[in-house]
Structures are given as C-alpha cells and as structure tokens.
Request: fold
Amino acid sequence: MTGQRFGAWTRRGILGLAIATSLTVAGTSRGDDTATWGPAHFDGHEVGVGTKARLSFATERSFTQDSLDVPLLVVRGDAPGPTLCLTAALHGDEVNGVEIVRSVYDALDPEKTSGTVLALPIVNLWGFRNGSRYLADRRDLNRAFPGNAEGSTGARIAQRVFQGLVRRCDALIDLHTGSNQRANVPQVRTDLGHGGATELALHFGVGIVIDGRGPKGSLRREAMDAGIPALLYEAGESLRFQRDEVARGVEGVRNVMEQLEMLPEAPPPGDPQRVFHHTRWVRATWGGIFVTERQLGERVAAGESLGRVTDPISGDQVEIRSKDAGTLIGMAVPQVVLPGFALFHLARQDIDGPVEASEAE
Reply:
C-alpha cells in the first residue's frame, strides 16, 4: 500500500482512538511491526490477534431500559493494517447486505488477514425484525448521521454508531438495496471528488459507479465529510435475499480488501467501469396499474417507451417515455401507482468512454 493511495489511514485511526469510548485497539500505526500489533477490546471483550468474534453493540435502550443490542462482527488480522467497516440494514427492509456481511465474515481467515474488519450487519434491528425501512419512531436512520446523543431515537442510534464505530474506520462500505417496491442494478455510489474513495469504488468492480455526495445526514456523506473514504453498494430489491446480488457484493468487498492490502491476494485487474455523474427519476403522470417490459441496466434513447400506466376503471392508458437517453439503474416493479410515483431511475454518462481502474501499485 502506498502513501499516495491510502496513506492517511493511520492518522484517522489515531483520531478514532481519542473519540471512540467503547472500542480500543492496540497497534494501529502502519509503521508498527507485528510485535506491537495487539488485540482489540470492545466493552470488556478482547479479540486477539489472528482471531475473530461475534459481539454485541448497544445502540439504545427500550422503554423497559433493556439494551437494544445489534450484532458486531470483529476480525482482528494477524498483521497490522487498516480498519474496514461494513454496515448493512440501516433500512431494516434492505436485507441483501445482511447476507453479504455474514458471508464475508464467515469466509475470512483472520490468520491470513491484515488489519481489522468491524461489521454491523443489522444496524436498524427494529426495522429488520418488522420488515420496515424505518425505525420505531418512523424516522429514516440514514438521514440522522452523525447523530445527536440528546436527539430523537434515530439521532441517538446514529450518534452511537458514528462515534463508537465509524470514527474508527479507515474505509467504510455501506450496503443497501432498492426501496418501496423498486429494484436497483448493482452499482456503487460515492463522491468521485475524493481520491481514496474513487480508487476503492473503481476496484469494487460491479461495473457501474454513480458520482455524488449522497443525501445530507446519510452515513456515507457524513463519513466522507469526516475524512473517511466511503462507498455505498446498491443492488436488488428490499425484503428479498437475492443470490446474485449478494455474490457480487461479497466479491466487491473482497476486491476492496485486496486493494487495501488486507488480504494476501493481489487486487484483480480493474475492469472498465461505467461512471455516471447525473441521474434523474421518470415519474408517473397518471395513477393506475403500472407495467413494463424493461430490464435493469438497459440503455434507452430519448423519447423511447419505458412502460405504461392503465386506469383499472376507465381502461385509459398513458405511455411512460424517457425524456433523456441513458441507462436504467433503478426501476419500480409492476404495481398500482399514484401520480408522481418514481418509476425509473435513469443515469446519464456524460464522459467519453469507460473509466479504467488504475492498476495496483
């Protein structure tokens, strides 16, 4: 790993030691040798070098004062290296990421890993249990970061996660799916103005990278503002475990770990990635039954038909057409819709040709 590519991770690790109150890790400097690389401690639990553990991370308390613990998976590598954090199910109905985290954790051999992996596979445990995108107070957790210890339930959970875990990260991958009966083509989203995040996004390797800071209060945006390279992986539908999207996510996480030199394998040659800088939604102009024959990832021309909405009472139909040329990166599944419902997420590639991921240095 070169200083140019990811040399700032030791400085952020030192900052995290001063901020996080529940997690302490010995020997975080890249300059440390194996003799000074020590165990990680979390809430009285020790995770030794070359081992991994399933722990609990208390995010808040219920009305009965019981702790609302979410699982924390820790892999403490056999050699010094960066800390990669994985988060999933910030929206409780987006479950593909839960399986991605589990699969990555189960497959990692800590004796062949450098650095540390910290993973929260189910951040929004209440939403996950109830099949809901939102928290118990009906707030969107992924609009609450970096949080507030004296704020709403969502703000308190966000503060606990951000200060107790995310501040420890040298890189972050947040895992999501489509929402509200929509599906997304596998894609990575990040701010391409951040060199470290750009390099990791291109090496994640799903073929599509969307440029953007993300919504205010989202985990990836606030992490980037704190100087932590952050990616968001989007793939598939909510409330479904989809094998292909999970497999792509697992492979992408491992690609990033190889790029960070956390795994002994060399990072794979970077395949061309299609980078999009602008996206827009095509919305229903008419209420009724929405149907389409379009597929995720298809390219469409301006004025081309995308689907139709039929009034089930009058039988009147409205054709949905694209105003722009682009690629379908997200779309609604056939359903009953109201006027204004977001049907198709269209991305426009306004650069010349695919962007190549640079080779490993």
Residues 243-259 form the longest helix (17 residues).
